[in-house]
């Protein structure tokens, strides 16, 4: 098993606050790795550094054996890392289908020359992109809203659409930022099964930050627990649940962990 | 006059006068505004700044077409169209190239510093003044004729009267319709068009989703520059070519963009027509339409000779009023554009 994302001794300081303190973690290829922790544990900061939203104060981040520390998000995208957002982002005035078709990466850019003199190639490419987008909409069960403006979709449908946009680019690893937030149970089930099947059938790696413990338990192995800016433990959810340190950090003891699950 | 039925009951003279002075005139000026506004609104939506040099790109395009016309005046006669119209594609391509060069030389260095939008607007003011100066330097200030020969005038008989429209006006309307349809197909069918709309919607998301933003910016300038050149040339063909040709267009064009919603190409077209028609309706002499009612009016009521909403010399006020009204009641514009 190869390591896709490796975070080595990373710290991030915001003014006087040390949000992430000398933290190291790994995401192995083909896994759905979860990142959990109580509020203020530094997991969002960690996630944003991996996603390229900002650079760490110290330490290095590696993607597929390449040092990508401080690399901006759109360059990380070219290296095969895509992300979704806690509050789903979409191109609101484009239809669901167009949202996917717009995102084909600069590798398949149309050139003016082709548009003028190689119509057949342009039409062929266009058809291929359309077919791929339709297929992804089918997998996401969004075919019935394909011609609807993305801005009119429900919050959950927008989250599915985000996943679709990520799939269009054929990434190596996908960062999921709180997929469950604001999504109803039925749609969440759909989302989870899509993530599972992408992981199982296409070997796609996911790095998930999530508050919904049921979803973490269903999807993720291993689970990384952060607390107070460092990685506390790492392992399968079943073990994490029993770990007294985790229970202490999360809920200040008691049976709260049981209640959450 | 032996017309029959309903038409004979209508005041034909006045109706035809209305068609000539309001419908056709509004359509002409509205099309010019639309051609200018579409390019400017696309660039505004995608690059997040109002490029005030856009008006002078129109003038520049017209002067390039003028130079080409002077270089080969006989060309049009072969095709049976005005020479300036035949060389228009070349003028559009050259202007598009100049627009990209302006971006590379002046706007890209500013954009690299991650500026506030107003910084770019002020940079565009600089480019605008520079273009105006250069055009005056090279071409002087005298008005020039784009036409080699004389303009064809078409008279369409309508119930005994003539609806008058000139050749450049017909070309302008036809060109505008074709350009709008082509732009619509481009924006909805092609992938670059979708990427453009996506970037206009959410630039950050487009960037991190791997949309080639440099490519989109380039295509946007090509469209903006070539439509500006077309609008400027067609306007100069209809009236005459002057260095301040399109500086006067800037305000109505900005009004059209805001009426339609910033970043909305369809809004800009509708906005351009609204501003154009409002202008012509505002300066239209309504007394002429009321004249047929004169026999039915009481004697003590006198019809004034001149009954307009706005005197012609204050025409420029009209877009201002529309602008203020839209900003008060519908700040997003009718097509729900961006709030910047």
TrEMBL record, chain A:
Domain ABC transporter: 5-253
PANTHER family: CONSERVED COMPONENT OF ABC TRANSPORTER FOR NATURAL AMINO ACIDS (PTHR45772:SF9), CONSERVED COMPONENT OF ABC TRANSPORTER FOR NATURAL AMINO ACIDS-RELATED (PTHR45772)
Record-stated family: Belongs to the ABC transporter superfamily.
Gene Ontology cellular component list: plasma membrane
Protein name: ABC transporter ATP-binding protein
Keyword Aminoacyl-tRNA synthetase: no
Keyword line: ATP-binding, Nucleotide-binding, Transport
InterPro entries noted in UniProt: AAA+_ATPase, ABC_AA/LPS_Transport, ABC_transporter-like_ATP-bd, ABC_transporter-like_CS, BCA_ABC_TP_C, P-loop_NTPase
One Pfam match: BCA_ABC_TP_C
Molecular function GO terms recorded: ATP binding; ATP hydrolysis activity
Stored SUPFAM superfamilies: P-loop containing nucleoside triphosphate hydrolases
Gene3D superfamilies found in the cross-reference section: P-loop containing nucleotide triphosphate hydrolases
Superkingdom of the source species: Bacteria
């Amino acid at each position: 098993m190869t390591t896709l994302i490796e975070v080595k001794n990373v710290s991030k300081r915001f003014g006087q606050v040390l949000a992430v303190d000398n933290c190291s973690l790994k995401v192995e290829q083909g896994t759905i790795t979860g990142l959990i922790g109580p509020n203020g544990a530094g997991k969002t900061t960690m996630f944003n550094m991996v996603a390229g939203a900002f650079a760490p104060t110290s330490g290095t981040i590696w993607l597929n054996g390449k040092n990508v520390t401080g690399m901006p998000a759109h360059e990380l995208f070219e290296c095969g890392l895509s992300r979704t957002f806690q509050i789903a982002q979409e191109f609101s005035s484009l239809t669901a289908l167009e949202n996917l078709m717009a995102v084909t990466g600069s590798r398949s850019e149309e050139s003016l020359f082709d548009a003028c003199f190689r119509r057949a190639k342009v039409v062929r490419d266009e058809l291929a992109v359309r077919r791929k987008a339709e297929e992804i909409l089918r997998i996401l069960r969004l075919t019935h809203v394909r011609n609807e403006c993305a801005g009119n979709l429900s919050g959950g449908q927008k989250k599915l659409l985000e996943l679709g946009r990520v799939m269009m680019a054929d990434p190596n690893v996908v960062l999921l930022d709180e997929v469950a937030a604001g999504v109803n149970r039925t749609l969440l089930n759909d989302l989870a099964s899509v993530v599972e099947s992408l992981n199982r059938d296409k070997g796609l790696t996911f790095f998930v930050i999530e508050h919904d413990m049921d979803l973490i338990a269903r999807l993720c192995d291993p689970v990384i627990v952060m607390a107070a800016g460092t990685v506390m433990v790492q392992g399968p959810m079943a073990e994490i649940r029993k770990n007294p340190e985790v229970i202490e950090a999360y809920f200040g003891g008691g049976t709260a962990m049981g209640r959450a699950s | 006059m032996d017309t029959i039925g309903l038409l004979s009951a209508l005041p034909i003279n006045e109706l035809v006068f209305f068609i000539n002075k309001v419908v056709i005139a509004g359509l002409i000026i509205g099309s010019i505004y639309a051609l200018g506004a579409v390019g400017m609104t696309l660039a505004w939506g995608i690059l997040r700044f109002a490029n005030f040099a856009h008006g002078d790109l129109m003038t520049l395009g017209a002067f390039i077409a003028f130079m080409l016309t002077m270089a080969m005046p006989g060309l049009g006669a072969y095709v049976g169209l005005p020479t300036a119209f035949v060389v228009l594609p070349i003028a559009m391509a050259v202007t598009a190239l100049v627009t990209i060069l302006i971006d590379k030389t002046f706007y890209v260095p500013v954009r690299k510093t991650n500026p506030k939008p107003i910084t770019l607007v002020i940079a565009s003011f600089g480019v605008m003044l520079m273009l105006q100066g250069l055009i005056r330097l090279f071409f002087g200030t005298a008005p020039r004729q784009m036409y080699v020969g004389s303009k064809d005038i078409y008279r369409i008989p309508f119930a005994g009267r003539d609806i008058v429209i000139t050749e450049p006006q017909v070309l302008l309307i036809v060109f505008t319709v074709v350009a709008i349809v082509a732009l619509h197909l481009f924006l909805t069918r092609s992938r670059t068009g979708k990427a453009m709309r996506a970037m206009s919607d959410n630039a950050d998301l487009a960037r991190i989703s791997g949309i080639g933003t440099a490519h989109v910016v380039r295509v946007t300038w090509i469209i903006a520059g070539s439509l500006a050149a077309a609008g400027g040339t067609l306007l100069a063909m209809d009236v005459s070519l002057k260095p301040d040709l399109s500086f006067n267009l800037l305000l109505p064009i900005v009004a059209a963009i805001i009426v339609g919603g910033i970043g909305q190409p369809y809004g800009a077209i509708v906005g351009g027509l609204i501003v154009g028609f409002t202008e012509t309706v505002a300066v239209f002499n309504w007394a002429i339409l009321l004249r047929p009612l004169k026999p039915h009016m009481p004697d003590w009521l006198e019809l004034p000779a001149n009954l307009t909403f706005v005197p012609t010399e204050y025409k420029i006020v009209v877009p201002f009023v529309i602008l203020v009204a839209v900003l008060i009641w519908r700040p997003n514009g009718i097509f729900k554009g961006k709030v910047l």
